[in-house]
Amino acid sequence: MRSVVIIVLACVTGCRTTDATRQSAEVRALESDLIPIEFGQEQVALYGIRSSISFEPADSAGTRVGVVQARGEEFEVRRDDTDDTARTGVDRDRNGRFEAAELKRGATTEHRLQFGSERVLVEICNAGPESEYLVRELWTARLEHGGEDLALGALRFGANSILFVDTDLDGVFESFLASDSPIALGGSSWDLMIDYDERQARLQATDRAPVTTGFPAPRTAGRSLGTDEAVDLVVDGATNVLVFCHAECAGCQLIAAGMQRVQADYADDPSVRFIAVSQTHDLARRTREQICPGFEHVISNAAWSDYAVRPTPTIVVIGSDGTIAYRGMGQGVQTEAMLREQIRAVR
Questions:
Q1: Distance between CA 112 and CA 123 in Å, rounded?
Q2: Are the C-beta atoms of residues 235 and 221 closer than 8 Å to each other?
Q3: What is the CA 237 to chain-centroid distance, rounded?
Q4: Could you say which of 46, 237, 255, 256 has the lowest number of CB atoms within 10 Å?
Q5: What's the rounded Cα separation, in Å, for the pair 88 and 130?
Q6: At what angle are helices 250-265 and 281-290 packed, to 10 degrees?
Q7: Residue 258: how many CB atoms within 10 A of its CB?
Q8: Alpha helix locations (H) across the chain?
Q9: What's the pLDDT at 13?
């Protein structure tokens, strides 16, 4: 049976920007504290990256012990299985006692682990014979420059992270940033650096253009899966819909049917192009079979780099002038309606 661990941090948002940063006309860097906040449901629904738990053989009482890792520390998970249920426990306050709950197959239970003054939510799921766990932390920072401000959310998966932006400052991080793509703020472009140990976000001035809404799309080519001919991902005069996805991605599977219905409606319209971009021939083949069979499938590892793709799905809608009109993860089950609206807006 499988266990899932979800870690969520809750705290009050705050920030720190120096007076010198605000007053200087030649700002080269901006800094802000990272503050842990509650993990939003819109991200919970999209990101289910899990790690496996290796359990030791059962002892004479039928109990097995496994290890999960959180914030560089290891914690034991104990499980006593029966045919239909698993009694699963986590030592939530690290006192050697395991709080437990009987779970039906597919059911979940919640625990909390203590890290100093912060309590971390742990969700365990009895999902099958092989256990998994998930550690997720969301941090926020507020950065200001040139009369504009930016609410940044950094979603941490162990040593990796995905960066989100709350564009209307309503507390919902509705769009994400690619870690290799600069941020536009106050008429300048900035490279973003996150230091979790110091709990700090830093923006460093850069001449590179962001790969995001309102900026020119990179001009990258690839090879057609079917013919191996060269394919330009962006064609002027057409609406270009690029989808970076793969068959094993849960978020991609969630939006697959909706994307396919939109593509089918424009199947006879050459002015709207739907391209699924994969990194290898095998990944492209499986994406064609399982996610979006009606799309044109292009193999381009360079495009994943040029568009600074990290999380999947990444959807990029490019207008006829070559400008990015939308870049994001989609909107779950609402992706179909969103995609139709974006295409209508740029045609």
A1: 8
A2: no
A3: 31
A4: 237
A5: 13
A6: 70
A7: 20
A8: 19-23, 41-44, 250-265, 281-290, 301-306, 335-346
A9: 31
pLDDT value of position 116:
73
Token match 């850069």: residue?
Answer: 206
Residues 6+ apart with CB under 8 A from 70: 5, 7, 113, 120, 135
Cα-based distances in Å from 324 to 166, 187, 321, 338, 343: 19, 17, 9, 15, 12
CB 294 within 8 A of CB 276: no
For 227, half-sphere exposure in the C-beta direction (CA atoms, 13 angstrom radius) is 4
Is-cis flag, bond preceding 313, omega within 30? Answer: yes
Enumerate residue ranges in the chain where pLDDT < 50: 1-25
Q: Token match 């994001």: residue?
A: 328
Amino acid at 48: G
Question: Could you tell me the two tokens for 158?
Answer: 């162990």
Cα separation, 111 vs 261, in Å, equals: 41
Q: Residue 266: which H helix or E strand, with range?
A: none
Selection from 41, 21, 47, 33 nearest residue 311 by Cα: 47
Q: Which domains does the chain have, with CATH numbers?
A: 1-209 (no CATH), 221-346 (3.40.30.10)
* 180 membership: H or E segment, kind and range: none
Rounded Cα–Cα distance for residues 228 and 231 (Å): 9
Report the pLDDT value the prediction gives residue 270, as an integer from 0 to 100. 94
Q: Give the 3-state secondary structure of residue 143.
A: strand
pTM of the model: 0.68
Helix axes 335-346 and 250-265, enclosed angle (nearest 10) = 50
How many beta carbons lie within 10 A of that of residue 226, not counting itself? 11
Encoded amino acid at 89, one letter: G
Angle at 185 between CA 181 and CA 191, to 5 degrees: 35
> What per-residue confidence (pLDDT) applies to 39?
55
Under DSSP, the state recorded for 253 is H
Angstrom distance (rounded) from CA 108 to CA 125: 4
